[in-house]
From TrEMBL:
<feature type="domain" description="ERp29 N-terminal">
    <location>
        <begin position="22"/>
        <end position="147"/>
    </location>
</feature>
<feature type="signal peptide">
    <location>
        <begin position="1"/>
        <end position="22"/>
    </location>
</feature>
<feature type="compositionally biased region" description="Basic and acidic residues">
    <location>
        <begin position="221"/>
        <end position="267"/>
    </location>
</feature>
<keyword id="KW-0732">Signal</keyword>
<dbReference type="GO" id="GO:0005788">
    <property type="term" value="C:endoplasmic reticulum lumen"/>
</dbReference>
<feature type="domain" description="Endoplasmic reticulum resident protein 29 C-terminal">
    <location>
        <begin position="240"/>
        <end position="279"/>
    </location>
</feature>
<dbReference type="InterPro" id="IPR036249">
    <property type="entry name" value="Thioredoxin-like_sf"/>
</dbReference>
<dbReference type="InterPro" id="IPR036356">
    <property type="entry name" value="ERp29_C_sf"/>
</dbReference>
<feature type="region of interest" description="Disordered">
    <location>
        <begin position="210"/>
        <end position="267"/>
    </location>
</feature>
<dbReference type="InterPro" id="IPR012883">
    <property type="entry name" value="ERp29_N"/>
</dbReference>
<dbReference type="Pfam" id="PF07749">
    <property type="entry name" value="ERp29"/>
</dbReference>
<feature type="domain" description="Endoplasmic reticulum resident protein 29 C-terminal">
    <location>
        <begin position="148"/>
        <end position="206"/>
    </location>
</feature>
<dbReference type="Pfam" id="PF07912">
    <property type="entry name" value="ERp29_N"/>
</dbReference>
<dbReference type="InterPro" id="IPR016855">
    <property type="entry name" value="ERp29"/>
</dbReference>
<dbReference type="GO" id="GO:0009306">
    <property type="term" value="P:protein secretion"/>
</dbReference>
<protein>
    <submittedName>
        <fullName>Endoplasmic reticulum resident protein 29</fullName>
    </submittedName>
</protein>
<dbReference type="InterPro" id="IPR011679">
    <property type="entry name" value="ERp29_C"/>
</dbReference>
Length: 295
């Protein structure tokens, strides 16, 4: 009962803030920063010059729209002035930010001592897709779906990538196929198909690695290697193959998007790109997530 009351209060609080500021985003300042952040599990804050405009800010507004129906996720901005009363410069100093790099995004997750930081080096790095991908790459416990992504399938994609057991992966593929059968809308069915086909391809890559591990040792002194060593090595190659496949496929689709095509085709390709990200976000390299903080 208490959790329901808190959730209801959170929904009302967000609704009031959105009525005041619109577009799903909230303006923060030195006086209300900590008070408002304390009410949300996850908060994405954009630090920027006061009264921002242009493509980067428009992309931010698109990101803000994703939070409108998520009571535990807030998207906010801090406008910084380097003139007059120098509003909010104390927050810039507090988080050791460089105004020359604005806009800078900080992602606050309750329970974490420090926020995650993101800033880009080109205009493309500030697209709504890139910012959403940054948020999705962090273990916030909140689902932030990109266009074309489906929550249940994203959960299965994460479990699939994080599993090293072929038998478990086949079970997750079966669960995805069953979900696909029950999807109602045409657009969701197209998305479900991409999830399932991606899992099938990754299983195929894993199967190739497993077959390689059972091959007789080659010449040149490799006979002394244990079977366990071979399996471990090929398991690493398997992860590398997954990363390479996903990266290659994303690059291919990005290239296609530069070509002239119908709006519907472009939306379908963007959805496919986002779904591939749902897998790629959890492919680990040398113990680190494939999406890193931009510091």
């Amino acid at each position: 009962m208490m959790n329901r009351c808190l959730l209801a209060v959170g929904v009302v609080f967000i609704s009031i803030l959105q009525l005041v500021f619109g577009k799903g985003q909230v303006s923060l300042d030195s006086h209300n920063f900590d008070k408002i952040l304390s009410k949300f599990h996850t908060t994405l804050v954009k630090f920027d010059a006061a009264f921002p405009f242009g493509p980067k800010h428009e992309a931010f507004l698109v990101v803000a729209e994703t939070s409108k129906h998520k009571p535990d996720f807030l998207v906010a901005e801090v406008g910084v002035k380097d003139y007059g009363d120098r509003d909010n410069e104390d927050l810039v100093k507090r988080f050791k930010l460089d105004s020359k790099q604005f806009p800078v995004y900080l992602l606050f997750v309750q329970g974490n001592e420090k926020p995650y930081s993101y800033h880009g080096s080109s205009d493309e790095d500030y697209s709504a897709d890139k910012i959403i991908s940054f948020v999705r790459s962090k273990d916030t416990g909140i689902w932030i779906g990109a266009p074309g992504c489906l929550q249940d399938f994203d959960r299965l994609a994460k479990q699939f990538i994080q599993s090293a057991c072929p038998h478990q992966r086949k079970g997750l593929l079966k669960s995805s196929e069953d979900l696909w059968d029950n999807v109602q809308t045409q657009s969701a069915r197209r998305s479900a198909e991409v999830y399932v086909k991606t899992m099938r391809k990754l299983l195929e890559l894993g199967g190739a690695a497993a077959r390689s591990a059972t091959m007789p040792p080659g010449h040149g002194g490799n006979e002394e290697k244990s079977t366990n060593e071979n399996v471990k090595t090929d398991s690493n190659k398997d992860k590398g193959s997954e990363s390479e496949y996903l990266s290659r496929e994303k690059s291919r689709i990005t290239g296609l998007l530069r070509e002239k095509m119908s709006d519907q085709k472009k939306e379908d390709l963007k959805a496919r790109l986002n779904i591939l990200d749902s897998f790629a976000l959890y492919v680990r390299k040398d113990g680190e997530n494939s999406v890193r903080d931009e510091l």
